[in-house]
Batch of 4 targets.
Target 1
Amino acid sequence: MAVFSRGFGARRRESDPDLPPGQYLTEDFPVLSAGPTPRIDTDEWSFTVVEDGRGLARWSWDEFLSLPIEDITTDIHCVTRWSKLGTSWRGVSIDTVLEAVESEATHVMAHSYGGYTTNIPLEDLVDGKAWVAFEFDGEPLDPEHGGPARLLVPHLYFWKSAKWVRGLDLMDGDAPGFWEQNGYNMHGDPWTEERYW
């Protein structure tokens, strides 16, 4: 069951080059979830990188926060047609997460607490394109927005920025995650409106 919040009645700025086709500007931060919001205590949170069932790397919350942290300012675009410009985040780059991992993987399946998954080509996560974010607008990330940590892949539609993220499964091919199995596009580029299959 999808859960919606306020913020879906936004306005379109036709002349704004920062808005992808079909998107509307919002000053709010709408929430859309496919089920109940998981509440994960940071004492129980961990983040893992696996491949073929083998654990390649694992961090507790404190270990993760000891990694290099970046400040990110970026626009975000939801497949439900809202966009929010100039958002501020803090997190750890996926480049940092994968630094010690050797793999021939081409794709990743992101896994979340609560069972949600989403697939992403590895090339869309590296070279400064994605983070595991734990702060939004100078505050710890609220559970409704994916706290304590979510994936942040701002150049793709926001469903690819998996909330409540707990790890990455490296894969040598593509496979659909939760929303992709339910008709969303396998890639999700907002600039070419890759919304659905």
Target 2
Amino acid sequence: MPKKPNSNAFTSLTAWRRSLASRAVQRGWRWVQETGAVSAERPGRLRFRRIGPGTRLAFPQGTVFGEPWIELGDHCVIGEQVTLTAGMMPGLDLGPDKVLTLGDGVVLGRGSHVIADTTVTIGPDTYCGPYVYITSTNHSYDDPKTPVGKQWPRAEPVEIGPGCWLGTGAVILPGARLGRNVVVAAGSVVRGTVPDHAVVAGAPARIVRSWEGERGWQPPLRTPAPVPIPEGVTPEQLLALGELRPDA
């Protein structure tokens, strides 16, 4: 009688083949991500007004058009599927001036959208979590007889100051002006003016904490400030510190 196949050996061989295939796919995808990323050295089809050194748009990119009116500063990090648009549609002549500006060191998290039908400026070192939506245009609904999507939209400039943090899913509406080091809580909807050093939350967003000079943060912070890593500490020293016993 013929021998029955060894089910354990067959299972091991199948698992080995799948592991090889998985590694090959992962290596291939990493190659695609690296090759498809956009930078000043490798802009691909995208011809921005300026793209600074060290700036990188991860692959795959979201919708991008109006690049001649988009200026990206130095060392910006733009995540996967981020939309950057200048103008209401591709192919428009928007004049001699830039429309969308990202300062140096701006970070846009995965899936974020920056829609600039008129001027949008994001100050240096502003960080955005995933799926942040910044727009200079909003639908109008003046005419109750016409579908909202067919009515001419309203557009107002947006200005986000330096050093801000926009949490996941935050929405910045037309006409918003955020000062320096503003914190926008996740899911908040911001309109109007927000002063320097304020924390806003809610829909619509309201100031829930602000810096008041000698009094500091009001209401006071509930947790102590984190202690930064001292300058000059090497990664090897940090690893060695992590291996120490708590009572050492």
Target 3
Amino acid sequence: MAEQGLRERKKQATRRMIADVATGLFVTRGFDAVTVAEIAEAAGVSKMTVFNYFPRKEDLYLDRHLDRLRELEAVVRDRPAGEPVTTAMRRYHHELLAAGHPLSGAIAGVHGFWSVLQSSPALMARMVEQEHEIGDMLAGVLAEETGDEFSARLVANLLTATIITIFRTPVGRIMAGDDVEQVRRDQVAVIDRAFDVLEQGIGPRREQVHSDG
């Protein structure tokens, strides 16, 4: 078991190293201008090794997706018995924010990362695919738990939309020039508001107030 654990840590370290090298090249030169062969050479590995870890070039840049899938699955599967999935997801997102994790969206490096992402249609398309993969994973796990595929799919889609909104809200603010630390402070309320809406629904329609003056 110890040997297997060491082997897995080495694989994860190699994967992270390749992704870091690739990200540096993408940020410097642009995603479309960098080839996988150039990434392999810069990382000191073979092109085949790169593809063994990242079957698609886009995943070299959006490299945290597999970790996010595993973590989100664990959040659902490992939550205490009887705990609503929204409670577990709310807690997870607060933990990401408190840790300054890139997937919180509220970090200083967002601007450079997002600029590269927005400049590449291939990356934007892959990001949308990854969002669908989150929904599919959550739907599968919830269907196993409940035996109700319709409700599982509906809840999974709502959770996915919430996750995406929580991430993109601080990203949008930082890209617009807002102070990162202020965005981080405000993000606590963003997370709670998002899950409050998910748990309570949008509520009845509010009547518009008209003023004669």
Target 4
Amino acid sequence: MRRIALVTLVVDDYDEAIRHYTQALGFRLVEDTPRPDGSRWVVVAPDAGRDGSGLLLARAKDDAQRGRVGDQTGGRVGFFLHTDDFARDHERMRAAGVTFLEEPRHEPYGSVVVFQDLYGNRWDLLEPAPAP
């Protein structure tokens, strides 16, 4: 079976990014392995119990990559974090200092709110509506 296992997210600093994704967003640290070139293989994922995608946190190596930190999708929502309890996760993230860019909305497709990560990348926190 094929699936997308990892998506690279360019960051300024490994440890800062790990703290944000694990503490503020509630992800788990899957792997943090030093590499011979001085970089690290850092993977975080939102759910320990599911076989979904994770983020490879890659430290920017040059000016071109540093220029993309926080703007990897040109200002659009580029990442979608699904939840099974919107109110719980929204409150937990708010209390952890996550920046929300709007008030929560209840749309036909589910409850949703746009937030930004530590670097300014835009995300949707989304609890999909039950299937009819």
